[in-house]
Amino acid sequence: MPGTSPGMTSFTTKLCSEPDSEEEFMSANSALHIAVLGGDGIGPEVMAPALDVLRKIEATTDLKFRFTDAPAGANNYRETGKSMPESTVRLCDEADAILLGACGLPSVRYPDNTEIMPQVELRFHFDLYAGVRPARLIPGVPSPIVGADQRGIDLVVIRESTEGLFASMGKGVVTDTEARETLVITRKTSERLFEFSFRLAERRKARGRVGGGLTCVDKANVFKAFAFFREMFDDAAKRHSDVKADRLYVDACAALLVKRPWDFDVMVMENMFGDILSDMTAGLIGGMGMAPSADIGDRHAVFQPCHGTAPDITGQGKANPTGMILSAAMMLDWLADKHGLESAAEAGERIERAVDKVYADGIKPMEFGGSNGTADIAKAVLAAL
User: Based on the structure, what is the number of domains in the chain?
Assistant: First the structure.
């Protein structure tokens, strides 16, 4: 059936480290502490429905949540000179998980003219090396790809999130005549990334994914760094012989994604390539408003929609909260594994089913030319739950 999936949120199962202290178990057994960073623009507007959905889950299960709001983003920088205070970083460190709306504004920038991006800073601070970007076409959602409504799209981009070209963020050298940025790929991060990716592909295969596998996307035919990247992928593939392993150059991958996206399962790639291709795959399933994401490390994880702050529609009730709601579902599945809470995994699946039902029943966000805004979508999902 087009649009069905072995479980969009379930891909995190058994991918994070085991709880490493009694304190982690205690947190889960009482109330799961969630750091809430609404951010800028439509960030707080889409965060509110996601929290309402989690409260509905809380009211109908044995799960308990404790939400703590914290400042982060361009508005905080404008007021204080910092993208986020140390108290926000401490909160994120202590919380069971981090929910983030959207951060940054085009009109607020650092002196070097780069945007305020605390979400990227958190990746570096907590070593969130695995950027997980699912792209699943929900029944009833339009795709620009002919045949997608019949064939379905259900793929995951795994974007390395702490190095690659982004390792140069804030460190580039600019003179009057040239500018230089440095791409970094390390064995330590790449080996963890590939292990994460193969295990994700294994879980999806175990849940019924037919003809799937893991594709390494690179530019190994031109750059030594990517040849090094592919060499480590090949070594990992030998340890996971039950997963079909493929390799594609990034330009060929982009061309195939817009022709036959249903042929892809899990893809793993360097940071900048993942930044670009994950936006493209979001476009295949209805746009950025439909796309959830997670940045996962060995101990911490941040969950946020793929879209930006959209200052042009801020305060108008037009924002689509679906990506944020599905990000909350991903968070529940990750917490289920971290704390051994089966009810959290079931709750994440309930949220997915509710979203699917809402779109199958005909809700149409404004970015699709419909009339349904933030409140309509939120109300429909809550009712479907």
Answer: 1
